[in-house]
Amino acid sequence: MSPQTAHTALIKSAAANLGFSFCGIAKAEFLEDEAPRLEEWLQRGYQGKMSYLENYFDKRLDPRLLVPGAKSIITLGYNYYPSADLSQTSNLKIAKYAYGEDYHFVIKDKLKTLLEELRLSIGEIDGRAFVDSAPVMERAWAQRAGTGWIGKNSLLLNKQMGSFFFLAELIIDLELDYDSPIKDYCGTCTACMDACPTEAIPEPYVVDGSKCISYFTIELKDAIPEEVKGKFDNWIFGCDICQDVCPWNRFSKAHSEKKFEPSDELKNLSKSDWKEITEEVFQLVFRRSAVKRTKLEGLQRNIEFVKTSK
């Protein structure tokens, strides 16, 4: 067995031991196919007010500009599918990924541990860990690494577990054995496109970010446009509609990460509790949650918007 093959096996074994659901590896190089698509997407204005997506265009397409000397992109998936869907019991809904502790912290810690373990076993490795926090085109790399295919809702789909997982990357200067992309299994299905109430998927594999409920409830800091009133289906933080209707999510299985479990306070919030939420309650329920991104004022704006949409 070559050192490269041994290192690859070690990485995949260590990732599994840390609880990652899958691990795939791609060669670090320029994303030639994605460049024109990204440029067109930005020119259409699909980023809305997310101007940060216009920055670092070159680094988004070439990870070697983020990590000089990078040879490999290791893509890791971490399941967050809950054992109970709170949207079935609550009149006001938040995306499943935000039920528990903020994934940035949970997964970043695991990535740091993985990188340290690799350094102890292999020797000096230069690299960086990323969890949705840098100009990394994570779904493109995940697809190249054979961990799934990009679906018509632009999310990565995996045959064994659907799409309710977080993606994370280690970009390192180590030559490894690379995985191959798999085929697209969406077929003629358009369930995600048909189900989106704000028509944010205008064509297969293209999402107009400026029309997405997640954009309106999390990213947009201004007032939510009146023309989407009555179309939110009571989502007040994020949205899972295009994932909930995806046939591949029949294969989703509940995660085993205690830090992703919803607190009793969150599970017990009534509709009136949501509507009358105070700073004290907000800090108690969401003290380590991704929901803190909206701040109390943003959450109150979203609640008011769906409340007056009836």
From TrEMBL:
Provide the residue positions that the database annotates as binding [4Fe-4S] cluster 2: C196, C212, C239, C242
Which keywords does the record carry? 4Fe-4S, Cobalamin, Cobalt, Cytoplasm, Iron, Iron-sulfur, Metal-binding, Oxidoreductase, Queuosine biosynthesis, tRNA processing
Give coiled-coil spans as residue ranges: none
Which GO BP terms apply?
A: tRNA queuosine(34) biosynthetic process
**Record-listed tRNA binding positions:** K221
Catalytic activity, as annotated: epoxyqueuosine(34) in tRNA + AH2 = queuosine(34) in tRNA + A + H2O
Q: What class of enzyme is it?
A: oxidoreductase
Listed EC numbers? 1.17.99.6
UniProt: cob(II)alamin binding residues: R60, D132, N153, L156, L167, S214, C239, D240
Question: What SUPFAM superfamilies does the entry give?
Answer: alpha-helical ferredoxin
Indicate the residues that form the catalytic site.
D132 (proton donor)
Residues covered by the 4Fe-4S ferredoxin-type domain = 174-206
Q: Does the keyword Secreted apply?
A: no
Location comes to: Cytoplasm
Mainly resides where? cytoplasm
What Gene Ontology cellular component terms go with this record?
Answer: cytoplasm
The note on the cofactor says: Binds 2 [4Fe-4S] clusters per monomer.
Q: Name one GO molecular function term.
A: cobalamin binding
User: Which pathway does the protein contribute to?
Assistant: tRNA modification; tRNA-queuosine biosynthesis
Pfam families per record: Fer4_16, QueG_DUF1730
Question: Of which family is this protein a member?
Answer: Belongs to the QueG family.
Subunit comment for this entry? Monomer.
**Any idea what job this protein has?**
Catalyzes the conversion of epoxyqueuosine (oQ) to queuosine (Q), which is a hypermodified base found in the wobble positions of tRNA(Asp), tRNA(Asn), tRNA(His) and tRNA(Tyr).
| Name the UniProt record assigns to this protein | Epoxyqueuosine reductase
Native source organism of the sequence: Chryseotalea sanaruensis
Gene name, please?
Answer: queG
